[in-house]
Amino acid sequence: MALIDNNGSHELLGADASGQLVIHAPTTAPLRQPPRKSRWPARLDMLQSASGLFLALFLMAHMFFVSSILISHDAFYTVARFFEGAYFLGKPYPILVSGVVSIILAVFIGHAWLAMRKFPAGYRQYRAFVTHKNSLRHGDTSLWWLQIWTGFALFFMATIHLYDMLTQPALIGPYESADRVWTGNMWPLYLMLLFAAELHASVGLYRLAIKWGWFTAATPNRSRRRLRWAKHGISAFFITLGLVTLAAYVDLGRAHAERAGERYVPTYLNAPHTAGKH
Ligand code: HEM
Question: Atom 14 (ligand 1): residue with closest C-alpha?
Fold first, then answer.
């Protein structure tokens, strides 16, 4: 006898030997509900976007603070002491910088952990994606690839820098930073970190804007074109600013190499022999 499950309602139809339609009573077997879809993937996606946005905005602000060395040595000194609370707590507390670094480090690790969900798992997935990417030749797919690689590089490079800042918060200043960059041999790391971080951040912001529909234009193609220009502009601006700033630290570090380790005293504290450009 054939049984037909009527849309899973358990109202079963059948036919007896003579072909007569028979309606069977609903069974008492418990219904198997389709499993409720978990909301966690969406929540994790949201967290990844929010942490990425936070880090990208932090990075932009950070570049402006660090590049204050281009204004004058005193300007950078003032910014560094400001973050140590010197102007509102009476004296500098470098531990405050360590506190901020800990927050950034925690968000950075969380963001990397969330991003790892999307990394290709194993060689077969990796090959499948590369083949797919090469055949598709779609700009956004290639950008995703660039983000995977720059993100992977940031795992290592940003962690070294953050550890430095966490453990030596008091050694931030014109001479202190320039000595670290040049005499401390940090400039090659900063150079690579600059490109990886700026490309990763600008591609990340672009992808966020596409994903959440920010700054849309009349047509999807026009939106995409507009966002691409913004992305290129942001990368070019911050990479240029970063390179010029890094060159300034290298310059000062080289000039100060003989006296590496000496602390900077701002001109307004009246120490003529340590005065920098102002
Ligand atoms: C709260 C956390 C951070 C602090 C306090 C900090 C502070 C600094 C300081 C003081 C410098 C100047 C050089 C030196 O003193 O060694 C610098 C340079 C740099 N930082 Fe950070 N940083 C932080 C987080 C980050 C993050 C998360 C990134 C990237 C992912 C980053 C990327 C860079 C780069 C690329 C340079 C070189 C500057 C240039 O090329 O102009 N920093 N940072």
Answer: 177
pLDDT value of position 30: 61
Contact 221, 147 (CB under 8 A): no
Could you give the percent of the chain with pLDDT greater than 70?
A: 86
Closest CA to 266 of 275, 258, 278: 275
Check: CATH 1.20.1300.10 for 40-274? yes
Residue 12 has pLDDT above 60, yes or no: no
pLDDT band at 1 (very low <50, low <70, confident <90, very high): very low
* Residue nearest ligand 1's atom 19 by CA: 190
Domain boundaries, the chain: 40-274
Ligand 1: lining residues by beta carbon, under 6 Å: 59, 62, 66, 97, 100-101, 104, 154, 158, 161-162, 165, 172, 177, 180-181, 186, 190, 193-194, 197, 242, 245-246, 249
pLDDT digits (tens, 9 = 90+) for 233-278: 999 999 999 999 999 999 999 999 999 999 999 998 865 554 444 4
**Confidence at residue 269, expressed as pLDDT on a 0 to 100 scale:** 83
Cβ proximity of 92 and 86 under 8 Å? yes
pLDDT range class, residue 175, cuts 50, 70, 90: very high
